[in-house]
Each structure stands twice: as structure tokens, then as C-alpha cells.
Amino acid sequence: MLTKITQVVLIIIGSAFKYSWLTVFAAETEWGLIPAFLFNFIGGCLGVYVYTYLGEHLRDWYIKRQKQKGTYRVVTKRNKLIIFFRKKLGLKGVAFLSPILITLPLGTAILLTMTKNHKKIIQYLLLSCFFWTAVILIPYKLFHIDLSKLFFDYLHTIWIQLSN
Prior knowledge:
Layout: H1 4-15, H2 19-28, H3 33-69, H4 77-102, H5 104-114, H6 118-143, H7 147-163
Helix pairs in contact: 1-2, 1-3, 2-3, 2-6, 3-5, 3-6, 4-5, 4-6
């Protein structure tokens, strides 16, 4: 059994990376709705700010390193995936699905290729994090309804349809 401090640290740091998993973990804790919501959302905010402001620098460093090693390729599966999300979903769609489906780091990287407006990226991602936290935590904590399983199953079917 994890201590409460360990749970808080795990949720805050983990939410910065894989928001949806840690939202479900926060729902499973014995805390009330407000603490679970706040810790999960704080972690998401932390991730959004870090990835938005450091993302361009990390991308430039990565490309420079790959070019020096001679392993830089323009056409990769990952780049095809990024192009797919950019064309099909747009800025708001990528931001909406980032916390729950794409992950915050990859979603932010895609958004940074779409616009240089950091304020807009942060605004859309924070609204998305707030929305998804509310959608998963409120029914679970207040009514004991586990919507996360239903959403993940539904998003999996959407993912399969979009990839065809």
C-alpha cells in the first residue's frame, strides 16, 4: 500500500507524462473528489508547461543529435502518425485527445509543429486536461461509475477506425 505522500507525488509526476492512466489511479484512491482532481490536474498543468516551453529545444536537440549520428530520417512511422493527427484533427482536436489518447508529451510536440503560439497551446491543453479529469473523476467519485473503461474501449474503436 502506497503512503499518501507517495500517491500524491506519483499522481503529480505521472500525470505530466501519461495523464489518463493517472486520472484512473487518482479515481481509485480513497481521497475525495477535490484532492484527487487537484493533484491530477496539477500534474497535467506541470507537464503542459514543461513540454510547451522545453519541447522546441528538446526537438531541436534531438534532430541535431540524430543528424550528427547519421540516423536522422524525415519519413518515419512516428512522423507519419504526427502528420495524420495534424491533418485529421487540427489544433483543437489534437489538444482535446492529447491527455486521454496521445499523451501530453507527444500531443504537445504535435501542437508545437502546428503553431508557435504557446499561450494557445497551453490554453487548449489545460482545458482538455480539466475536461477529461472531470469526465473521469466526477462520475467515479460521486456515483461509483467507472467511465474510464467505457472511454478507453470507445477510444480504441475510434483509433482503429482512424487508422484504416
